[in-house]
């Protein structure tokens, strides 16, 4: 299935580039690809800042944490699509980076995430109710110990007190 999706992606990108090159010419097509990447970099930076502001507002209790996480996921996906070469991925990336498109997709992302989280929580509670953890029999083949330089350092000066006499580095004071 992943191979089929990759082949479909490559065919769609080649068809899009060939169609655009047919209508506007090869030079303008290359310039369009370069301009799309440049615009993408600028938009990713701006929307990344906006998402971080949303995270800050959500951490202060001024906004929805689910909405901030959904925006962050959509901006991350849009940024990843912007850096994959091609016209189709650039257009999809710009759409995901646009605030109106994210506003339309945000409830869908929150609903999908909530449904998946509920399924994971139900599976975890079922596993806990059925007896807990899964035990796997095995044996230790190799053990690794921390080297001495990771051990806690010893103090350079040692001191001890016996009755009222103080010994520092084994000299009496």
UniProtKB/TrEMBL annotation:
<dbReference type="InterPro" id="IPR007313">
    <property type="entry name" value="FxsA"/>
</dbReference>
<feature type="transmembrane region" description="Helical">
    <location>
        <begin position="67"/>
        <end position="97"/>
    </location>
</feature>
<dbReference type="GO" id="GO:0016020">
    <property type="term" value="C:membrane"/>
</dbReference>
<feature type="transmembrane region" description="Helical">
    <location>
        <begin position="26"/>
        <end position="46"/>
    </location>
</feature>
<keyword id="KW-1133">Transmembrane helix</keyword>
<keyword id="KW-0812">Transmembrane</keyword>
<dbReference type="Pfam" id="PF04186">
    <property type="entry name" value="FxsA"/>
</dbReference>
<keyword id="KW-0472">Membrane</keyword>
<protein>
    <submittedName>
        <fullName>FxsA family protein</fullName>
    </submittedName>
</protein>
